[in-house]
Design goal:
Bound molecules: nicotinamide-adenine-dinucleotide
GO molecular function: 3-chloroallyl aldehyde dehydrogenase activity; aldehyde dehydrogenase (NAD+) activity
Structural class: alpha/beta
Number of domains: 3
CATH class of the largest domain: Alpha Beta
Mean pLDDT: 94
GO cellular component, one term: cytoplasm
Number of strands: 18
Shape: globular
Strand order of the largest sheet: 10-13-14-9-8-15-16
Radius of gyration: 26 Å
CATH architecture of the largest domain: 3-Layer(aba) Sandwich
Keywords: NAD, Oxidoreductase
Pfam family, one: Aldedh
Organism: Sphaeramia orbicularis (orbiculate cardinalfish)
């Protein structure tokens, strides 16, 4: 499936057997069972690791071509995250694959009762452009670890990385099991007409609706890794200099094009007065007085995205207190901070997904929590405060995909934590074991012998009340035995 996108649409299919022949090949491979043994999964994961390690320079070059991604950021947020995930999966694979024994009742005490993880089949992974390597391959780690075949669809917008993945993946991974499909919305729509066993989609909420519609035709389960507006809430006593530095790093990393970037800040007017100079200072420390010449700042991915951001900025009634400069040819927008932004401002209409940071003032902790709770549940929520009572209150009274106190975006670096949204910010999660679980079916298994047939007799007709009493006891929790 690698190489140029097919010219015609993939055949619209309603059943496994009518699938496009390339998908048919993957499905036949899956049916053959070769992806199931631990050794096969381990080999493919090691091959993926080799692909990343042996082609680091090419990968960094492609990421720079696509987003002017600084090498430092690319290594940290694409390569290190990916190789950590691979190490973690390779070291835990055996234990993840083990059957999980469960507690038994008296009636089942001589049986083997366990949960068996089995692969789902042929899964589809659709990725966005902002972390074009990591967001394509991290889900693939989970899919391979769980023993699936996969069709992988990189974003057409990050073209250099798409080209590189189409070239490298078939060289390192089994072509019978994993296929790269290239193309934009039209090719993806055609691809979605086929039946998959799971669709893992990362991208915008609006496209997610069409993904769901397509999935509904075949009743395909879907994981949605979406975006939205992640709030940063600064309240009470706080180390304002450190908070500003951490916020600036989290917001302007990848030029703000991160699904977990703080989208807007909430604070009291008094906090804003100290926060703005601290943000200004942090920005100058990080990117200098002319950020356009700083190699540590990415560019906006495309002219279309640049225009969208400049439109938002142009329509905003907020006051620019830092930045505001831009250059269309260079797809550059200076790290920009605005104050006096109101709830109904253009910048609050949609996810910003760029280097623009509005500050909204609230009167109290309760008002800030209310502001957050009146909106879609965010993918991440960041609270900055020296006071644990403040942090705990926001933690308890709000709902979000992830929650971090006194920092931003760093939670996604830990493979032990599930990564995903809630409500409008997404369904399902991955990273580490959570990715393995997402791409596995948890099969309930009870292996019975012929023991206790007299006890079994209790459930057969003729039904009698005294038999029911005994049955209640032998099946009930009071007779439960730990596994
Ligand atoms: P997008 O939805 O435009 O595109 C994502 C993928 O969908 C691409 O591969 C694209 O080719 C495909 N696509 C686009 N239009 C389609 C259509 N009509 N039908 C079928 N497929 C289509 O998203 P994007 O602009 O690439 O990414 C930005 C969004 O993704 C932001 O909202 C961001 O918050 C979100 N995001 C979420 C995460 C996460 O992990 N939760 C990570 C990164 C980005």
């Amino acid at each position: 499936l690698s190489g140029p996108a097919p010219s015609g649409p993939l055949s619209p299919v309603g059943s496994y057997c009518q699938c496009d022949f390339r998908l048919k090949k993957l499905r036949a491979t899956f049916r053959s069972g070769i992806t199931v043994p631990e050794q096969f999964r381990r080999t493919q994961l090691n091959n993926l690791m080799a692909m990343v390690n042996e082609n680091e320079e090419q990968i960094l070059k492609a990421l720079h071509q696509d987003l002017a991604k600084p090498k430092f950021e690319a290594i940290l947020s694409e390569l290190v995250i990916l190789t950590n995930e691979l190490h973690y999966a390779i070291s835990n694979l055996r234990s993840w694959m083990q059957p999980e024994y469960v507690s038994k009742s008296l009636a089942t005490r001589f049986d083997d009762c366990f949960v068996q993880r089995e692969p789902l089949g042929v899964v589809l992974i659709i990725a966005p452009w902002n972390y074009p390597l990591q967001l394509l391959l991290l889900p693939l780690v989970g899919a391979i670890a769980a023993g699936n075949c996969a069709v992988i669809k990189p974003s057409e917008i990050s073209l250099a990385t798409e080209n590189l993945m189409a070239e490298l993946i078939p060289r390192y991974l089994s072509q019978d099991c994993y296929a790269v499909v290239r193309g934009g919305p039209e090719e993806t729509k055609a691809l979605l007409e086929n039946r998959f066993d799971h669709i893992f989609y990362t991208g915008s909420q609006s496209v997610a609706r069409s993904i769901l519609q397509a999935a509904s035709v075949h009743l395909t389960p879907v994981t949605l890794e979406l975006g939205g507006k992640c709030p940063g809430f600064i309240y009470g006593h706080v180390n304002i200099v450190a908070a500003a530095r951490r916020l600036v790093w989290a917001k302007f990393f990848n030029a703000g094009q991160s699904c977990v970037a703080p989208d807007y800040l909430l604070c009291t007017r008094a906090t804003q007065d100290t926060l703005v100079p601290a943000l200004r200072q942090a920005l100058e420390d990080f990117y200098g007085t002319n950020p356009q010449t700083c190699p540590d700042l990415s560019r906006i991915v495309s002219p279309r995205h640049w225009t969208r951001l400049m439109n938002l900025l142009g329509r905003s009634k907020g006051k620019v207190v830092v930045g505001g400069e831009s250059n269309e040819e260079d797809k550059y927008i200076a790290p920009t901070v605005l104050v006096d932004v109101t709830e109904d401002d253009a910048l609050m209409e949609e996810e910003i997904f760029g280097p623009i940071l509005p500050i909204i003032t609230v009167e109290s902790l309760e008002k800030g929590i209310e502001f957050i709770n009146c909106r879609e549940k965010p993918l991440a929520l960041y609270v900055f405060s020296d006071e644990s009572s403040v942090i705990n209150m926001v933690l308890e009274k709000t709902s979000s995909g992830g929650f971090v106190s006194n920092d931003g975006i760093i939670h996604m670096s830990l493979p032990g934590l599930p990564f995903g949204g809630v409500g409008g910010s997404g369904w399902g999660s991955y990273h580490g074991r959570w990715g393995f679980e997402t791409f596995s079916h948890r099969k309930a298994c009870m292996l019975r012998g012929w023991a206790l047939e007299r006890l079994n007799g209790l459930r057969y007709p003729p039904y009698r009340d005294d038999k029911l009493g005994w049955l209640r006891w032998t099946l009930g929790c009071t007779s439960m035995l730990r596994c």
